[in-house]
Design a protein that fits this description.
By secondary structure, this protein is α/β, with parallel strands linked by helices. It has a single domain (about 15-375), classed as TIM Barrel (Alpha-Beta Barrel), CATH 3.20.20. Helices cover about 30% and strands about 15% of the residues. It has twelve helices and twelve strands. The chain has helices at about 45-60, 75-85, 100-110, 125-135, 140-150, 170-180, 200-210, 250-255, 260-270, 335-340, 345-355, 375; strands at about 15, 65, 90-95, 115-120, 155-160, 185-190, 275, 285-290, 295-300, 310-315, 320, 330. Strands 7-8-9-6-5-4-3-2-1-10-11-12 form a twelve-stranded mixed β-sheet. Strand 3, helix 3 (about 100-110) and strand 4 form a beta-alpha-beta unit. The radius of gyration is 20 Å and the shape is globular.
Length: about 375
């Protein structure tokens, strides 16, 4: 039976974090010394991970995206993916990666049953790459891109977080990649994960007003459809130390660039973009440079969110199932597993989380997720 939430949305897309560890230290994601991480016995083991994901597929979640942290640093990942890919109801298995290990693993991933790959890449300039990612090597990441194309992990999507003063002058360079190569570049608005740590809610509300964020027809309904359920908990982690090179909330707000501005910059140099007829299971608005092999997309979750069409849940590396990226609240499937839950019990927990899925985020009201950073939520 399909999973349908309280607002009649079919929930068929599960983003699965397989690790909260990462080999990069991107300035908008974590401090230079890294974010707090779980002990290995707190993470889902291979058997638990396969069991939960295959159960999700049997419940109708037929699009699975593997994330992290950086998923390719998890030992034994290829074997896990091979098991998941065998499920006859699975329609798509994809993975999001920073690309650093992709050059050596692309063919293994394809052989395991991965259909396509998303690469996170915020600059095409070596000196900026070092400044933004603070680990890795741009040439190795670009080698990973080519390896993914050669292995047939297509379409390859490049996710670029646009930041004023850091990489906003490279948007046209990224768009040009799509002219000759069959890649899909998506420009992403900087998301307010942990932006407001230490801030008052009115600062977040004020930012959203200045950014022009709006929800046509939005209502002041409860954040969750069943917000009084005591089984729907909150996760607590130490607040990130933002003094070690990670952009703090104020710096992130100043670096914010609206997707409409990014599009205008590209069109001013390359001409009007055309609508692209591309099937997508995510929130991107997709366009094409006339005659280009690939596409250009914009994910505007701040200024023009797509909450009301949201079709996904998130499973964290430590086994928490969450209904919304932009709000705290989750149920521990790991604990249920380790306490002897059978598949019916676990299926009911999936349904509980779906029941709690909110209609939309309330960022413009000063409500933001603070209890996990992006590396703990799954990118």
């Amino acid at each position: 039976m399909a999973l349908i939430d309280s607002f009649d949305r079919k929930i068929h897309y599960l983003r699965v974090s397989v690790t909260d560890r990462c080999n990069f230290r991107c300035i908008y994601c974590m401090p230079d010394e890294g974010a707090p991480i779980s002990h290995r016995d707190e993470l889902l083991n291979d058997v638990e991970l396969v069991r939960l994901v295959t159960l999700a597929v049997s419940l109708g979640m037929n699009h699975i995206r593997i994330t992290g942290g950086e998923p390719l640093v998890r030992p034994g990942l290829v074997s896990v993916l091979t098991e998941i890919a065998r499920h006859p109801q699975l329609e798509e298995l994809s993975i999001t990666t920073n690309g650093f290990l992709l050059g050596r693993m692309a063919r293994e991933l394809a052989a395991a049953g991965v259909n396509r790959v998303n690469m996170s890449l915020d600059t095409l300039r070596e000196n900026r790459f070092t400044a933004i990612a603070r680990r890795g090597d741009l040439a190795e990441v670009l080698r990973g891109l080519n390896a993914a194309l050669d292995a047939g992990l297509a379409p390859v999507k490049i996710n670029c977080v646009v930041m004023r003063g850091y990489n906003d002058d490279e948007c046209t360079d990224f768009a040009r990649l799509t002219i000759a190569q069959p890649v899909h570049v998506r420009f992403i608005e900087l998301m307010p994960i942990s932006w407001s740590a230490g801030d008052e809610p009115d600062l977040l509300r004020g930012f959203y007003a200045l950014a022009g964020a709006a929800k046509p027809g939005a209502t002041k309904n409860d954040m969750y459809a069943a917000s009084n359920a005591d089984s729907f908990g909150r996760f607590q982690l130490p607040v990130l130390n933002q003094s070690s090179g990670m952009l703090n909330g104020g710096a992130m707000r100043r670096a914010f660039v609206a997707a409409s501005e990014t599009r205008s910059t590209i069109e001013a140099e390359l001409g009007p973009l055309q609508d692209a007829d591309v099937t997508t299971h995510g929130p991107a608005q997709t366009f094409r440079i006339p005659g280009a092999a690939g596409t250009v997309g914009f994910i505007s979750q701040v200024t023009r969110d797509f909450c009301r069409q949201c079709n996904r849940l998130r499973l964290t590396a430590d086994g928490a199932l969450r209904p919304c990226l932009m709000a705290d609240g989750e149920v521990s499937l790991r604990d249920a597993l380790r306490e002897g839950a059978n598949d019916d019990d676990l299926a009911n927990l999936f349904r509980l989380v779906v029941k709690h899925k909110p209609l939309e985020h309330r960022l413009e009201d000063g409500i933001a997720p603070l209890n996990r950073g992006m590396s703990q939520l799954g990118g």
